[in-house]
Amino acid sequence: MKPTTFRSTVGAVLTVALSAVVLPATAASAAGGKASGTATVDSATTTSFGRVADAVLTERTAALLDSRQVGRIAPLKDRNVRLSARQSRVEDGALSSLRGRKARLASLGEAYTSADTRVSVDRTRVKDGRATVQVTETTTLKYKKIHGDEPATTGFQAHHELNFTARADGGWELTGITPKDDGLRQINQPEATAVQGVATAHPNATRASTTRPSRQQQKPTGTTGYNYKAMASYAEKYWKNYNPAYRKFNDAGGDCTNFVSQSLKAGGWKHDSGVYSDYRNWWYDSSYQTSSWVGADEWSWFTLHHKRATNLSNVYYMGIGDIMQMDFNRDGSKDHSMIVTYRSSSGVPYLTYHSVNTYRKSVASIIASNPNAYYYAYRT
Description:
Layout: E1 3-7, E2 13-17, E3 21-23, H1 28-31, E4 39-41, H2 43-62, E5 77-78, E6 81-83, H3 85-107, E7 112-127, E8 130-143, E9 153-166, E10 172-179, H4 198-201, H5 228-238, H6 256-266, H7 291-294, H8 296-305, E11 310-312, E12 323-327, E13 336-343, E14 349-353, E15 358-362, H9 363-369, E16 374-379
Parallel strand pairs: 2-7, 6-10
Antiparallel strand pairs: 1-2, 3-4, 5-6, 7-8, 8-9, 9-10, 11-16, 12-13, 12-16, 13-14, 14-15
Helix pairs in contact: 2-3, 5-6
């Protein structure tokens, strides 16, 4: 089997053997295989497992560097593989811990100017909708010349076990990463921290009813200064012919929230500058963007934190320029974002969105097709 190597913009390298991974038939449906006999996780999914492992470990290393880089090293999503909501909070805590370690190192007269992280997938096992992935990380860090007598580099090799769980929609989520080496903690291995629940860690969205109400609720006009018609016009202009002024994220977790953010900006939403990984910031530039610009959960947290929108109690209350999000499998992590671009005289909102590119789909047809999802409606 021939390995394929990927290099990120900061020198992270990932090597994955592009071979099919055999799993029992009980996990076939979760992996997109046959219902009986032997099923496989395809090479693209195996590669995505490795890419996500690479992104997590590279980002941990980057938290130690003495640099002003604010862009994410690599997306923490790849095709149909992403971090679970809980693991996202674990990584937030890990990066905070490592930034504290960097500060302690600086006080002791040590810093690193650059790093190279290489991740190889050694073994993948899949059973009953769960994948266990063994990886080897090789990391080299370059010392900053503070005293002048430092060696050029330091390096280490570490082993990790990653656990992925199959989602109902056929995708996978990273639910845990565990170091497998005994001995001293490596420099980019964070200290264990308690994980807070969603309600205390981030603003908590309130689910919306999907039952059609007996009375309509109209969206107030002229109260926010936003141009809702401009939001709708933008979305309906670029729903299938993408605006070349923006990057696309169809192959990196989906383009839906990126598209919503573009539409909101077209209607008057202003950038909120700051660190890309802090959900309280929201911006896009020629080289990168915040996680809240492209991530469904992060967009919700940003929006509710800054009160740019409020949750509606019913999806039928949405008006033009309002946003609906869905949690397909009720796991607490939002999967999809859409914008209302038309509302009928009888009170039915119609939504336009990317991934899959769709124009004016009624909220009724969305609910009928996804009866088990959780729905969140936002008045912008």
